[in-house]
Amino acid sequence: MRIRSDSFDHEGRIPAEFAMGAPDGFGGNRNPHLAWDDVPDGTRSFALLCIDTDAPTDASLAGKEGVEIPVAHPRGDFVHWVAADISVDTRDIAAGAVSDGVAKGGKAADANSGLREGLNDYTGWFAGNADLAGDYHGYDGPYPPPNDLRVHRYFFRVFALDVPELALPASFTAADVFRAMHGHVLAEAATYGTYTLNEKAGG
């Protein structure tokens, strides 16, 4: 199975159009175009994830004045998009189809998108912010710390599954999807783009 995007090149920079954060404030926060093919026989649905694998593990350093987060700082995952029960007939998602702009205070899943979308990690990140706190469903794009010296990588992963739907709670996370699809994955394809808000960030 293969996955590609018309919105960014594999291993290339993701445009600010598809990011939550931009150098001068908020970006366009549109979901990028994605398409996949060479689907294995027996596929009955798909799951989709977008994960930043370069998130600093010490969140208190993000944006801290006078501090630069070194490249060698320990990293963890930050989930930007989780969707499940995607129809077996779906082979692409148009740019801006499920996210087009920043929704402060949370964002409900689009019932008409054809995707069953879960909570991304901005839900926890903004939990203590009176202006931004809420449940963030669906896609919300890159917003790496502007004081981070590492260029972040955003992996878009699509999974072909042998079941038409996953056993998930009404409000679910990426961890719930990983547990539910265990033993049901026929194939996986991935691509990634990069993003930074630090002009001094290296590779």
TrEMBL record:
Domain of life: Bacteria
Cross-referenced Pfam families: PBP (PF01161)
Gene3D superfamilies hit by this protein: PEBP-like
InterPro entries: PEBP, PEBP-like_sf, YbhB_YbcL/LppC-like
Matching NCBIfam families: YbhB/YbcL family Raf kinase inhibitor-like protein
Name of the protein this chain belongs to: YbhB/YbcL family Raf kinase inhibitor-like protein
Organism: Luteimonas aestuarii
Lineage of the organism: Bacteria, Pseudomonadati, Pseudomonadota, Gammaproteobacteria, Lysobacterales
